[in-house]
Amino acid sequence: MKKITIILLVFIALLFSACSSTAVDNASKEASDQLQNISNKNNKYVLMVKDGHPTDYPDVTYGKSFDNFFGSPTWKYFKSDDGRDVVEFTGDCTYRESKVKARLQFILKVDDGTFEAGALSFNEVPQENVVTLSLLGNVFKEEQEKMSKAKEAEISKIEKKEKASDDKNDNINFQKTPIDQAAQRKINIFMSNFAEVPFDMSFKEDNISDRQLILFGFWHYYRNHGMKEPYFQFEKPYCKISKKYIEQAVKKYYNISKINHQTIPIDKNYSYEYKNRYYYFMPAEGECPIDYSVVYRIDNIGQNKYYIYAKEYHGSENTTKLPLNYDYYGLNYDKAEKIYKDEMDVYTVKMVKAKVEKIKENGKERYILLEYAAK
């Protein structure tokens, strides 16, 4: 049972009264809710809401958040008198020191695949929209905090495990490479190129997929140049990027020259379509992401090859108190952790181990990625 703390600008007085007929009605409704919750378990409209997530909390779903926040949660679908598709949620919570039964309806826009919160009541007493907004904010914030704590605990376990492995490696033949300020910034920038790709980029040596290479090339130019010419061109309603830029990025960071170009499905309704030597996609606007890596250890394993240990930080302009032009690439690990704890909200972090090689080409040295694992 969770507690909702809602601050209202206007004092709202709730008076609850009970009588035998009310008790019977409530018991009947609760039994009906529980029965319909079972029969609607796999209803596509119920799942549409439960699997959805709010814009400000992309890592949490309505279903998991509501089921964790409320006691005795139930979900059901029905058609309203005016023909609208409605999913109704009920659950127990505490409002202003009193136990209440919350009943919240979601109005579906099936053709668009979207929905919005509708009527909310506590113990069948209708609530104002400001109460609905406050309730939703508390539900998702608490779920995000739970996830963040669980993630931090998992990362702490991984860090301890990796440290134990590192200590063992110290007794073998690896040599720690000192990281001065200039080297820190350079290697942070290199590793951040992979953190900026919003897809799983983990792979074993000599086993990276064409899909990963294409996604890397696309997102490398998108994150570094936006949708600016000459890299991106508009062919309404689409935007396109030439395969040559994908190949240039892949060659530079992986030293791979051959790619099997192909259409890349993103989900069941969207893809990066490949045709006539270009990748086509529908441009969209959204909040500005913040993704970067901070390296905390480099092991020289010989033959110009290194193991790099880093931590990825993922957020957006809405999850940081720092200015958008803040120099994250110049951070060392201790400073990055302090900023993460003091200045960031709703952040996702991952531990990374990468294998890289330093090569020399046309008189210039650069790192290339041989293997990548993010947890």
What does the secondary structure layout of this molecule look like, with pairings?
Layout: E1 3-4, H1 20-39, H2 44-50, H3 62-69, E2 71-79, E3 85-95, E4 98-109, E5 114-122, E6 125-126, H4 129-170, E7 175-176, H5 181-195, H6 210-225, E8 232-235, E9 238-242, H7 243-254, E10 264-267, E11 270-275, E12 278-281, E13 289-302, E14 305-316, H8 333-343, E15 348-361, E16 364-374
Parallel strand pairs: 1-3
Antiparallel strand pairs: 2-3, 3-4, 4-5, 5-6, 7-13, 8-9, 9-12, 10-11, 11-12, 13-14, 14-15, 15-16
Helix pairs in contact: 3-4, 6-7
Structure description:
The strands form three sheets. Strands 1, 2, 3, 4, 5 and 6 form a six-stranded mixed sheet that branches. Strands 7-13-14-15-16 form a five-stranded antiparallel sheet. Helix 6 packs across helix 7 (243-254). The two termini are 32 Å apart. The radius of gyration is 26 Å and the shape is globular. It is built from eight helices and 16 strands. It has two domains: 3-141, no CATH class; 173-374, no CATH class. The protein has helices at 20-39, 44-50, 62-69, 129-170, 181-195, 210-225, 243-254, 333-343; strands spanning 3-4, 71-79, 85-95, 98-109, 114-122, 125-126, 175-176, 232-235, 238-242, 264-267, 270-275, 278-281, 289-302, 305-316, 348-361, 364-374. The chain has 375 residues and is an alpha+beta fold.
Mean pLDDT: 83
Could you give the distance between the termini? 32 Å
Q: How many domains, as an integer?
A: 2
Main β-sheet: number of strands, strand sense, barrel status? 6 strands, mixed
**Structural class of the helix and strand makeup?**
alpha+beta
Q: Write the element-wise H/E pattern from the N-terminal end onward.
A: EHHHEEEEEHEHHEEHEEEEEHEE
Low-confidence stretches: 1-24, 169-173
Dominant shape? globular
| Helicity level | 25-40%
What radius of gyration results from the CA coordinates? 26 Å
Strand content: 25-35%
Number of helices: 8
The total count of strands amounts to: 16
